[in-house]
Specification:
The complex is a heterodimer of chains A (about 45) and B (about 500). Chain A is an all-alpha fold. Chain A has one helix at about 5-25. Chain A is rod-shaped. Chain A starts with a helix and ends in a 19-residue tail after the last helix. Chain B is mostly helical. In chain B, helix 6 packs antiparallel against helix 14, helix 9 runs antiparallel to helix 17 (about 400-430) and helix 17 crosses helix 18 (about 435-455). Classes of the chains: A mainly alpha (about 45), B mainly alpha (about 500). The interface of A and B includes residues 12 and 45 of A.
Amino acid sequence: MTISHTLDMILNLEVFAFVGLMFWLYFKDFNGKAGKGSKDDGSDRN
Amino acid sequence: MFKNPLLLLALAITGAIALWGLVDTAGLSTMAARLVGLQFTSRAWFIMLTVSFMLIVSAWLALSPYGRIKLGSDDEEPEFSTVSWLSMLFAAGMGVGLLYWGTAEPLTHFLMISEYEDERRSAGLALFVTNFHWGLHAWAIYALTGLVIAYFGFRRGCPSLLSAPILKVFGQGRWFKAIGWLSDLMAIVAIAIGLGGSVAMGVFQVKEGVEALFGLTPGGGGLTMVIFAVLCLSYLLPLTMDLSRGMAVLSNTAMIIAGGLMIFILLAGPTYYLMGGIVQAAGEYLGGALVQGFRTFTFMDENVGSWFQSWTLTYMVWWLAWAPFVGVFIARISRGRTIREFLCGVILVPTAFSILWFGVFGGVGFYGLLNDGVPYLEVLQENVSGMTFFVLQAFPLHQLTIAAVVVAAFLFIVTSVVSAAFVLSMFSTGGDLNPRAKVRLTWGVILGALGLVMILSGSIDAVKSIIALGALPFVFIVILLVVCLLKDLKAQGRPK
């Protein structure tokens, strides 16, 4: 395996891991932290 | 000022890049080109997938019930009238890039495409590719980033920082605080480097214009430095006071000059040819834009691959680099709009304008090249920065139009740098809407130094590589912000 192939593999593995992380963050319930707060009528704006 | 670690680190990173470039310009350019080439080769698919994803998400949000959500409280009315809002979006979409690349970009693509296709077909394809670079995908990047800032700022009560949506959605955990902090830092670096590139491009163009106007011998490095010095003085002064209203006037003036120039060329040039070209280019673009967003040219030869990297991929990461800067601006003028109005206005209006712009300036280039045998391609290969002026010289009142382009380019750069220095100061001081003059001036100086580095690099290709290097990490941040938006919308539920 050449150096450029290894680098290519690492760069793409990073991307795969990132995409996986994004899916996890989207679907994971952060135990009350995500989406809580006042209901979205704009009342908690500045 | 010196108690803020984010500000200090951001200044240190951008200052170090500027210093490296000033000491060893060739070394920085080579290093940037090598690193960017490596990333572009391995991650081209990901960059194209990301920009297509952003366009698709924008379309879905605009059409879904979420499109009815207001960027502000439910009973809030838009701050600006629709006409005035749309004209400000024009101003954001217009920039020194359009003046610079109006004719040069379609002809550059023509040069490459005509190696594979018939000349007449190549002209249409070249306009199509140019429209793709400046069209729906570019504006979807800006729109979605702006929407995140506007939604979390006006509806969810967050400060205008990129870290704010992350902390709001995922909570104040240690990891998320670190990611938020890093996002703000990367945004600052990407904006600063991207702006430096724009300064360089603007200075190159103003120099060419001044040479064409006064019949000077091309190639004087002294003139470049004089223009750069005048530019620095012009933007440093407004940074010491609050001139936001004055800046809006200058930006609108530049926009009116550019719009007037486009109408003049359309009427003074071969109008039937230009209008025909615009209609055809618009149709071809609307028919093929989505597919083009997924095209990675994987099965083509090295020549096409290298063109794809230095144009399409570079543009896409360039828009990503500018996204927080333009996003903050379009968010600020869009309070009280619904998500649907926001997305449709921000994506469709500037795209339509770009199609008109390149149809006129690109069309004039193709008419001269294909019908009159004007040596545009030779001029392009010799001096890309002077292309717009060479085209204008073929028209009546060319002294006036060249002077108008010089003035417009100068005003665009001054207003961009002043606005960018404000946004950078805001980001680096925890979202302070009125950052101190000392911080603004420091950013003004750093932006000037980065611009000087790009000017010293001497070539537009080096400028593009350095910008891409600063912008690449930002691809990840933009996706994270979109995830924050989608997750929060889902948690809040569909509006009834």
